[in-house]
Write a structure and sequence with these properties.
- The radius of gyration is 50 Å and the shape is elongated.
- With 339 residues, it is mainly alpha-helical.
- Among the domains are: 151 residues, no CATH class; 31 residues, no CATH class.
C-alpha cells in the first residue's frame, strides 16, 4: 500500500483537505499588489465632457437659428405690411416726373408760339424770308459747339431778325422732339432711325428753311443739343444716374477757369457785324456833315435817311433773352461730348 505522502504533488504547498473549497484567485498587478483598473473611469469622464460640449454647441446653434428665423419673419411681416406704401411712393415719383415733363412741354409750347408769331409778323413785313429757296448748306467738319457754331453755320447770326428766326426754329425742334415721344435718356446714336426720320420730316414741314441743309444736319444737331442739355440737367439734379463712361467730365469741368469769358460765338459774330455797320454809318454821317456844314447845328443827331445802328447794338444787348443751359456754343461743353 503506497503512503499518502508519495501521491501528493511536490509544489511546496499543503494539499487541501477533503471537503474544503479553494478561494478564487485574484489577478495580480505588475507591482505585486492587488488593485482595481482605472481605464473604464477615464473613458467615461472624457465621454461626458464631449457630450457636454456637443450639447452646448447644439444649444448655441439652435439659438442662432431661432434668432435668424425671427428676423426673417419680421422682415416678411414688414414687406407684407408696406407694399401699398411702396407702390404709392413709386406712383408719386412717376407722377412727379410726368408733371415736370408736362410743365416743360407747356413752357416750350408757349415760347414757341410767341416766337413764331414774332417771326410771322417779320415775314409779313418783309423783314426776312422763311422759304426753302437758296443754296444747299453742307455740314461742316467737327463737332457742334467745339469746332463750329450751329447758328453761325446756319447763317442766322448776322442780325436781330435772323437771331429771332434761329430761336424760333430751335424751340420748334424742341417742341417736335417732345411730341415725337423720343427717348431723350438715350444718346443720339442709340435712338432708332425711324424716330429720327419722323422728326426730320416734321421739322422740314414746320420750318421750310430747314430744307436747305444737307441730310437734315441742322435738325439733327439742334435735337442732339436739346437732349444733351436735358440729360445734363437731370444729372445735376439727381433724376438720372451719370453713366460710368462720363464720370470724368465733372472733374474736367471743375478744372476750367470759371472767370474766363464765355460769350456765344453767334453773339460775337452778331456784335462784330453790328460794330462794322455802326462804323460805316458813322463814316457816312461824318462825310455828309463835312459836305453840308449847316446840318451840324441841327438838333436831330441823326440826319434824315440815316439810321442809328449804335442804338440797335445797345438795345440788343439789353433785350437779348437768356437761353440758360440750352444755349448753343461753348456753354454746351460743360458736360462734354456724349455722342
Amino acid at each position: 500500500m503506497t503512503p499518502q505522502s508519495e501521491n501528493m504533488p511536490s509544489t511546496g504547498q499543503a494539499a487541501p483537505q477533503a471537503g474544503w473549497k479553494q478561494a478564487p484567485k485574484r489577478p495580480r498587478t505588475s507591482g505585486g499588489t492587488n488593485s482595481t483598473p482605472l481605464t473604464d473611469t477615464g473613458n467615461r469622464t472624457e465621454a461626458n465632457a464631449n457630450m457636454a460640449a456637443m450639447q452646448a454647441t447644439l444649444k448655441r446653434l439652435e439659438a442662432e437659428l431661432l434668432k435668424e428665423k425671427k428676423a426673417r419673419q419680421d422682415l416678411q411681416r414688414d414687406m407684407e405690411s408696406h407694399p401699398a406704401q411702396q407702390e404709392q411712393a413709386t406712383d408719386e415719383d412717376a407722377q412727379a416726373q410726368v408733371a415736370r415733363m408736362e410743365e416743360e412741354l407747356t413752357q416750350e409750347r408757349l415760347a414757341n408760339a410767341e416766337l413764331q408769331k414774332t417771326l410771322d409778323d417779320m415775314v409779313k413785313s418783309g423783314g426776312t424770308s422763311t422759304d426753302a429757296e437758296g443754296p444747299t448748306i453742307p455740314r461742316p467738319k467737327g463737332s457742334a459747339g467745339t469746332h463750329f457754331s450751329i447758328q453761325v453755320t446756319m447763317k442766322l447770326a448776322s442780325s436781330e431778325e435772323k437771331d429771332l428766326k434761329y430761336k424760333a426754329i430751335q424751340r420748334g425742334i424742341r417742341f417736335l422732339a417732345l411730341n415725337a415721344n423720343i427717348n431723350w435718356k438715350l444718346t443720339w446714336s442709340k435712338i432708332p432711325a425711324l424716330a429720327k426720320a419722323n422728326l426730320y420730316s416734321a421739322a422740314r414741314e414746320k420750318h421750310k428753311y430747314l430744307k436747305r441743309f444737307e441730310n437734315d444736319w441742322a435738325t439733327e444737331e439742334l435735337a442732339k443739343m436739346y437732349f444733351k442739355n436735358l440729360r445734363g440737367n437731370h444729372y445735376r439734379r439727381g433724376y438720372l444716374q451719370v453713366p460710368d463712361g462720363y464720370s470724368h467730365l465733372k472733374a474736367n469741368s471743375a478744372q476750367r477757369n470759371q472767370s474766363a469769358p464765355r460769350i456765344k460765338r453767334a453773339k460775337a459774330v452778331m456784335l462784330k457785324r453790328q460794330e462794322a455797320r455802326a462804323r460805316k454809318a458813322a463814316s457816312r454821317r461824318q462825310q455828309t456833315a463835312e459836305e453840308e456844314p449847316g446840318m451840324e447845328d441841327s438838333d436831330d443827331p441823326n440826319p434824315i435817311g440815316q439810321e442809328s445802328e449804335e442804338m440797335q447794338v445797345d438795345g440788343e444787348d439789353n433785350n437779348e433773352p437768356d437761353q440758360g443751359p440750352n444755349a448753343e456754343g461753348d456753354e454746351d461743353n460743360d458736360s462734354g461730348s456724349e455722342e
